[in-house]
Amino acid sequence: MTARSISNNAVKPARKKGFFRTLGKQWQLMIMSVPMLLYVLLFNYAPLWGWVTAFQDYQAKKGMFGSPWVGLDNFKWLFGNNDFLLSIRNTLAMSLINLVFGTVSAVLLAVLLNEVRNKTFKRSVQTITYLPHFLSMVIVVNMAQNLFSSNGAINDLLLGVGLVKEPVFFLGKGEYFWWLVGVINVWKEVGWGTIIYIAAMTSIDPSLYEAAAIDGAGRFQRILHVTLPGIKSTFMVLLIMNIGHLLEAGFEIQYLMRNGLVMKYSDTIDVFVMIYSFGGSRPHYAYGVAAGMFKSIVGIILLLGANRIAKLLDEETLI
Question: Which fold would CATH assign to domain 54-137+170-312?
C-alpha cells in the first residue's frame, strides 16, 4: 500500500467525522431546511416520474400504466419533425441574443451606476430600471406591439428623422422577430440583472481605487483594472448558470407575439410543447414530454460542460 492510499484512507473517516460533527452543531438549521427540502422533492423531483410517458403512446383514458410502450419512437418522431428542429433553432438564437445583450447591458449599467456619486440620482435610476421586471408579460408585449406597429412611436421616430421612407413592418417580418424579443427582454430585465453586479462592486476594497488613482489611473482605467476584475467571479457564476438555460428562451413573449407571418421564427421548444401537447383534436402528451425531457437533459449537459470549462481555465465555478 502506497503512502498516498494510506493518507486517502485516513482523510475519509476524518471528513465523515467532521460532517457529522457539523451536523450535530447546526441541527437547528437542518430542521429549518427540511420544509424547503420537502418542497423541492415534491415539486421538482417527484414529477420526473412523468418522464415515463415519453416512451409511451400515452392516452389519457388508459393512464400511464395502461398506455402502450413505444420505446424511442417519440424521440425519432421529434427529430424527424421540421417544426421541432425549427423550434430548436429559434430557441438557441433567441437565447444567445438574450444572453449576450442581457449580460452586456446589465454589466454596463451596473458599472455606470457604480460611478455615479449622486446617491439620489443613482437610486432613482435603479428604481426606474428594475420596475419593469415586476410588470406582467402581457402588459409588456402589448406596449411593445403598440411601439413597433406600423403607426407606432418607433416608426414615427424613424420617419421623422428620415432614416426610412415608409413604415417598417416590424411585427410581420420573421427576420426582425428574434431581435424584438431581445430588445423587450433587455428593457424588462436589465435593471433587475444589475442588482447582483452592483452588490459585487460594493465588496471591492476602496483602497484599490485609491491606489489606482495615486498611480495616475483615470476613471476608465480604474473601471478596466479594478471594477471589472472585482466582479469577475460573479460574472463567471452567472454566465455558467445562463449557459445552462440556453434552451429556456421563454414562452410568453413568443406565444403572445406570434402570428402566421412569423411562426417559423417565433415558435420555441416551449411553444412547440404547448401546441403538440394540448392543441388539435387529439393531444399528443408524449411528444411534449419527450421534447421537455430533451430540453432538460441538454440543459444539464450545457451546465456541467460550462462549469468544467471554467474549472479547466481556473475560473470561478458553480459546482
Answer: MetI-like fold (1.10.3720)
List, for residues 48-64, the tens digit of each pLDDT value: 888 898 999 888 788 88
Nearest to 213 by CA among 202, 229, 226: 226
pLDDT digits (tens, 9 = 90+) for 225-235: 999 999 998 99
Give the Cβ contact number of residue 121 at 10 Å: 11
Q: From CA 269, how far away is CA 85, in angstroms rounded?
A: 9
Domain spans, the chain: 54-137+170-312
| Spatial contact of 75 and 290, defined as CB atoms under 8 Å apart | yes
Amino acid identity for residue 13 in this structure: P
If you average pLDDT over residues 118-139, what whole number do you get?
91
To the nearest 10°, report the CA torsion of 117, 121, 127, 128: -130
Alpha-carbon distance of 309 to 242, in angstroms, equals: 14
Return d(Cα 248, Cα 263) in angstroms, integer: 18
H helical segments located in 118-257: 119-130, 137-148, 153-161, 174-202, 206-214, 219-222, 228-230, 232-243, 252-257
217: left (phi over 0), alpha (psi -120 to 50) or beta: beta
Looking at residue 314, its pLDDT comes to: 82
Helix (H) or strand (E) holding 287: helix 285-312
How far is 113 from 58, CA to CA, in rounded Å? 53
Please list, in sequence order, all residues whose beta carbon lies within 8 angstroms of the beta carbon of residue 288, skipping any fewer than 6 positions away.
Answer: 273, 274, 276, 277, 278
pLDDT of residue 59: 82
Integer angstrom CA distances of residue 232 from 47, 189, 201: 36, 21, 10
Max Cα–Cα distance, the chain, nearest Å = 83
pLDDT over 90, % of the chain: 53
* Length of the chain in terms of residues written: 319
- Determine what percent of the chain is predicted with pLDDT higher than 70: 94
CB of 272 closer than 8 Å to CB of 294: no
